[in-house]
Amino acid sequence: MFDVLDSLKPHAHWLLRIGLASVFIFHGIGKAMALGGFAQMMGLPTPVAALVTLAELAGGVGIIVGAFTNDLITRLAGLAIAPVMLGAIFMVHWGRWNFTPAEGFPMGGMEFQVVLLLMALFFIVMGNAGLNRTS
Question: Which of 4, 74, 79, 97 has minimal CB crowding within 10 Å?
Answer without folding.
Answer: 4
